[in-house]
Amino acid sequence: MKKVLLTALAAATISVASAQNSAVNSAILNHKNGTLDKAQESINQAIEHKKTKDKAKTWFYRGVIYQDMIGNPIYGKMTDDKTPLIVLESFDKTLELDGNNGEFAKQVPARKEQLYGQVLNQAVEFHNNQDWENAIEKYKLASKINPTDTTSVLYAAYASTANKDYPAAIGFYDNLIKMGHTTEDVYKNKIQLMQATEASDEEVMKTLSAGLEKQPNSVYLMQEELRYYLKNDRGEEAMEKLDKAIAADPSNASLLAVKGNLLERKKDLDGATATYKKAIEIEPNNFDANYNLGVLEFNKGADVNNRAAKMDYATYQKKGKALEAEAKKHYQAALPYFEKALEIQPKDQATMQNLIKLYTRLERKADAEKISAMLNQ
């Protein structure tokens, strides 16, 4: 008799467990048939029951069912902002229960990558509609799903900047740097935001120094660092540092272009001119050296013209024409440098604006109109 009772009890236990396993199986079948509402109902039952709540299979299919509802033309309306979090929680729980090499755990990375794409697409849609707050939240969630991908963090920085939340944007750029995404633009954008928030010179210079360790040939970072040196009466220190860098890499045209800029700031225009020309000898397509040489010659011409404009009529009659001819020589000298600069960077607006001024002063109306049309495209 005892044997019969035990057999009956075992049968009852198996029946209960099978009933709960059938909830998982029902969820899988409904998912396969595309009836995701029924699949959701069944998997929610299974996730609550003590017999199936600790099964990797249960959590995996919970993640799959909820994930496939996202963006679905019929069942998408049953999702909300919490749905991706439910999916992420489900897949993380799958890994916890199944280990990295389990049957279901092996399928999680591909599913997480898909989820990342879904959330990132949502973020981009908000971004394109300039709904910055929602875009940022989605970018943050995308980063949580895939902590190694820098795309969502970078665009979160862009969105925060557009939203004028500069401290948040700086924080995202800091995250990018920690992740090893240390491009020139990351440091440039962070520094500009720091300047907009009136960070101390010491903080900005610390960031500039860190940036130059990662991007030692960045002209922008070098010029900004030198500007802060000069601002803080450390011009000699700046020149000494620059000369050491040039001595270590004498064929680096970018370093010479920066030195030319520093000499300009120190009012040594002859030294600046010679240094820019040396940079062009090494690298004919160096934009900064060509552009700055054009500016130097243009400004010389403008200074001569201004002297002529300030003359009284009698003095102008004697000396004015000679000064105008001298100014024209400087404008002519500036022209090839600006033309070369535009060749190097065909969309640079400052170069085009200066060329329009030059062509106008040299009475080359057709050329001025041509550049003006390019500028307005």
From TrEMBL:
TPR repeats lie at residues 253-286. SUPFAM superfamilies: TPR-like. The keyword Transmembrane helix does not apply. Pfam families: TPR_11, TPR_19. The keyword Signal applies. Residues 1-19 form the signal peptide. Keywords: Repeat, Signal, TPR repeat. InterPro entries: TPR-like_helical_dom_sf (IPR011990), TPR_rpt (IPR019734), Ycf3 (IPR050498). PANTHER family: TETRATRICOPEPTIDE REPEAT PROTEIN 6, UDP-N-ACETYLGLUCOSAMINE--PEPTIDE N-ACETYLGLUCOSAMINYLTRANSFERASE SPINDLY-RELATED. This is Tetratricopeptide repeat protein. It comes from Pontibacter toksunensis.
